[in-house]
Amino acid sequence: MMASYKPSILVAAGRVALQQENQPEVGAMFLMMDLFDISQLDITLDNRLLSAEEAGRYEKGIALLCDDVPLAHITGFQEFYGRKFKVTPDTLVPRPETEELVHHVLSTIRSGVAADIGTGTGCIAISLDLEADFKVFCTDISSAVLEVARENAEVLDSDVIFRQGDLLDPLVTEGVKLDVLVSNPPYIAESERALMSRSVLDHDPHLALFADDDGLLLYKRMIDDLPLVMKDDSYVFFEIGHAQGAALTDYIVKKYDVTVHIEQDINQLDRILWFRWCE
């Protein structure tokens, strides 16, 4: 028997609740919205029956949701800064905290040459390109990841420039000089693996999650190479782990005469580290 939106969501939420404690009705609702490109208003009005094909797709999606598969890996995309970005098993699913990083960059500077290091889906680079007047480079070590980012740029009509390579190496090779460097690199320490959810460990690429030296290695490598790519009076922005601010600040100020700022995210956790280069 075919059902409309709301009854389908309530039944699905009951199934999800048996596996997950965290707002099962919200997950069931967003799955329906994403699969069928409908709004919360459509669900509230509840004036259309799901077809047999739609009901089957929703049933398969709910089964995956019950198995801790992230919503974005079920639907194949994630909303970020008002746009849909394709995600694959090769890419980290963009997080709301990273939207805050983009917002902070745009609140500070809106033009010049920018680079997103470790671009993943391209969500940071493409958002900066489309929201402001930057010439944007982005780098990633993975060719599979860059293919996803290129596809997102094409779909969203972005002119981001892609380079494959390790962190800043492609920019150094080309002699690119930056007004803005932004990066959300892998920053989780191996010691934190036991604290992470099955959903993340089973479905996000570990290359995009973990880093040596208590999660600090890739930051330190970028920080060491900043003189090779930064213009005078430029800006550096990092998304960081909530407990990494003090260690990174100490590492930076021992090397350079800069003032480091730490900004908290919506959950009141340290999340953005930034500074003006050679102020």
Automatic annotation (TrEMBL):
Binding site for S-adenosyl-L-methionine: G118, T119, G120, T121, G122, D140, N184
Signal sequence bounds: none
Domain Methyltransferase small: 101-192
Positions annotated to bind substrate: N184, P185, P186, Y187
PROSITE patterns (alphabetical): N6_MTASE (PS00092)
HAMAP family tied to this protein: RF_methyltr_PrmC
Name recorded for this polypeptide: Release factor glutamine methyltransferase
Species whose genome carries this gene: Macrococcus lamae
